[in-house]
Amino acid sequence: LALTDAGLTGMTELALSGEQVDLLFSEERLYVPEAAELPVHTGLVLQSERGKALGRVTADGNVKLVRGDREAFGLHGRSAEQRIALDLLLDPEIGISSMGGRAGTGKSALALCAGLEAVLERSQHQKVMV
Questions:
Q1: Which residues neighbour 92 within 8 Å (Cβ) at sequence distance 6 or greater?
Q2: What is the b/e burial string over 65-93, where b = at least 16 CB atoms within 10 angstroms of the residue's CB?
Q3: Residues in CB range of 73: below 8 A, 6 or more apart
Q4: Does 86 lie in the same domain as 41?
Q5: pTM for this structure?
Q6: How many CA atoms lie within 13 A of 10 on its CB side?
Q7: List of residues 6+ apart from 59 with CB closer than 8 A
Q8: Residues 85, 49 within the same domain
Q9: What's the pLDDT tens digit per position in 50-100?
Q10: Which of 77, 81, 68 is nearest to 109 (CA)?
Q11: Structural domain of residue 51, as residue ranges?
């Protein structure tokens, strides 16, 4: 995991073969031994000779593909970190999320839009409390 002055970033880079990336895009999940050793929900920048992709480590040790076109209440993640955060916030299997970072990086906007998406668009919850 990357370490900054503010602490761990929750992101790391991982090299995959082109075949692994193709399989990840077709299946949307892939077991990668190196990723299984990382903490759950670690964001991954996946690099191969064919390009880059985003993923995150699931509770069962697999890599889940994080698509860049995901949105919550009209908000898109602009950076890799925001896209991973949005994917985590929109996952109904994750009950509580905690994000840290510098002011102005979009944490509140992502959380609020994910909450509104869950209540107003998907009817997964009854209300958002701020």
A1: 118, 124
A2: bbeeeeebeebebeebbbbbbbbbbbeee
A3: 113, 114, 116, 117, 120, 121
A4: no
A5: 0.88
A6: 18
A7: 40
A8: no
A9: 889 999 999 999 999 999 899 999 999 999 999 999 999 999 999 898 998
A10: 77
A11: 1-66
